[in-house]
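Long-time lurker, finally posting.

We've been working with Barstar family protein (Deinococcus antarcticus) and I want a structural starting point before designing mutants. I don't trust myself to interpret raw outputs, so I'm hoping someone here can both generate the structure tokens and explain anything notable. Sequence follows.
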Amino acid sequence: MIQVFSEVPQGIQTAPHELRISAAGHQVAVREVDLTHVRDKDSLMMAFLSGLALTQSFGRNWDALYDVLTDPQQFSGRLAVVLCDYAHFKKKRANLCAEMDQVLLDAQSNAAEQGRLLWLLAEEPDRDTKHW
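Top reply, 14 upvotes:
Generated this for you. Predicted structure of Barstar family protein:
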């Protein structure tokens, strides 16, 4: 298996199983954005505010999200944004997810131009625990 942090970030990738251990070994900061309860753009922006540990002054719009992710003052050279419950969110809120993806991918591209690395990782909850 390819070690995700050994490669240049490209698009939204599947999060590795030992995410935190792997990230620590590569000196990558990890922030988790939980998409489980997102219903609309407002709740999505609140998920980013919480997951990225932003201040209440965060503008809660696409431009503000882009600015935060591309600002070297906010995040130094190596950041992984983990999108928890991504596949379910994408299925449930396709239009909102498409907008979010575009902003994240644009930010990833801009970070690369600055010589910074921004991984976008999709993580799914463990659905192995079945209740019979």
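Before you design anything, note these points.
The radius of gyration is 14 Å.
Confidence is low (pLDDT under 50) at residues 128-132.
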